[in-house]
Amino acid sequence: MSAEMQQANQEMEAEIGKAPPKETSLWKDALSRIVKSKTSLIGLIIITLLIIVAIFAPLIAPYHPVDDGSVIDRYQSPSAKHWLGTDALGRDIFSRIVYGARISIQIGVIAVGISGVVGVLLGGIAGYVGRWVDMVIMRFIDILMAFPSILLAIAMVAVMGRGLTNAMIAVGIVGVPHFARIVRSTVLSVKEKEFVEAAHATGVKNGRILFRHVLPNTMAPLIVQTTLSIGTAILDAAGLSFLGLGAQAPKPEWGAMLNAGRAALQSAPWVITFPGLAILFVVLGFNLLGDGLRDALDPRLKQ
Amino acid sequence: MTQNLLEVNNLKKHFPIKKGAILPKQVGAVKAVDGVSFHVRKGETLGLVGESGCGKSTTGRSILNLIKPTEGEVKYKGQNIAHYKGEQLRQLRKEIQIIFQDPYASLNPRMTVEQIIEEPMRAFKVPASERKPKVEKLLNVVGLSPYHKHRYPHQFSGGQRQRIGIARALSLDPELIICDEPVSALDVSIQAQVVNLMEDLQKEFDLTYIFIAHDLSVVHHISDRVAVMYLGEIVEVGEVEELYKNPKHPYTQALLSAIPEANPHKKRDRIMLEGDLPSPSDPPQGCKFHTRCPFAEEQCKVEHPKLKDVSTGDHQAACHLVNEVVKEPVSG
């Protein structure tokens, strides 16, 4: 190594010493941009609250969601004793909503987990392999998309049998096309990048290229889609429960609570109003955060 | 006598132009590389120059089989590798490597430097106990430090990233490295460092380079022999000093006259080329250069010139207007 090169290297060292290592700048940038935008901050707060409520449900809820309550206390309007009133069986609605947060998170995570894993695999393979494989997978996805999502979910639950588990599976499958399409399109652009070509040129096998090089670089749009999908999944599952196909009584699921309160809509509107509001806010929270993330992770906004 | 490590014979790559969504019909082809032949001797550097879109990079990628050649032979150590597929092709990766032009696009942003450099070894099942020390050694070799290995590409400058790319290419101990414009994305001050590094490495590891570039002075500096490409063909090839001092093909002359001169008072005869590069999907008949050649004659529009010896040394050009020099058979 020549003397001039060594000098150049020393200069380079000095330059490296100056810049402190920034480990995950993408996510740090994203977080700071989310906090700056008011709407996505509201979304983040709502979701954080939902998670806290779900974790500490036994500490927050004044009553047991199912066992506490007698028919004598039925349809009580909101009061100091029952903040949000009671339902047809005298159960405290506030406590039921608090415990319902657990079910909603469970639905969101499991259903979107199913959509995510299946969608990423199908979309990733379709985009990476291309040609007839792409054709077959994407036409199958088109068929799934041709059905209105709630109708498809109802049909699937009708075949598999009612219940919360089946409802989650159905909602998960209905969400697959969105993930598959987004992953496919991102994979199509990432696989043309030079580092993928470099991996081919160094003898890395296809499976590893897909999982180590291509898919990790599709994360940004995937995170956005996941956040938005959790909101939709909670809404869809609540819809199934409302129709009596999802969570069954006496589970404190918000959609099922809406259904139970339907009969007393005029005499005791609080029974149906508060679970409805809970669904509204949670779905709103995920949508706000998802939109915020979309902007925050947009590389075009980077300076 | 030095033997030919690589021989390329009549290599062609035509990209089909298709029309129709349901049953696509081929309506034409972009002739990116159209009958290229050359050879590379062991231990030398062959410079491949030409303007953008003349097929330099496509030639490089076709040799590596990253793009399947349409036609022709690529003989590596006597074996035709143009039709290799699957595992046979993968095994060849140990021998022929590539350094890319864009040091920003060619490193996976989600992998650390160590993961990037050891990945080729991992692909060929080198045990971790050998991989880790080798990564540190390679980092030293390319002028970085072992403590850089846990950093991500975005924490490095362009020149440093290119060094990482070079370390990756060296990790499998290849014999031939195709350098696809390795310095054209870098600052001029950094270019010299990287070019010097590549020269040092060539001596240290006995490497053979195909150096693709459009910067004629860089090519002059690093190459032993130079091939000039125009519209998918080689128009002139020869020893670097001979070719730079005594260019025969009008295109080479025009290219060389465009190199900026450090002395502003020195008189220069610049040959200005008129017109644009013709489309490679519809190249001119006869000599492909005749549309822009200041000396073109009737013959040039009809007959396609072949490479012929134009001096007693190692120097060939494809031009009707240059007289062929009959070489004495080499004795002994």
Automatic annotation (TrEMBL), chain B:
Keywords: ATP-binding, Nucleotide-binding, Transport. Residues 6-256 form the ABC transporter domain. InterPro entries: AAA+_ATPase, ABC_transp_ATP-bind, ABC_transporter-like_ATP-bd, ABC_transporter-like_CS, Oligopep_ABC_C, P-loop_NTPase. PANTHER family: D,D-DIPEPTIDE TRANSPORT ATP-BINDING PROTEIN DDPF-RELATED, TRANSPORT ATP-BINDING PROTEIN. Transmembrane segments: none annotated. NCBIfam families: oligo_HPY, PRK11308.1. This is Peptide ABC transporter ATPase. Belongs to the ABC transporter superfamily. One of its GO terms (molecular function) is ATP hydrolysis activity. GO terms for biological process: peptide transport; transmembrane transport.
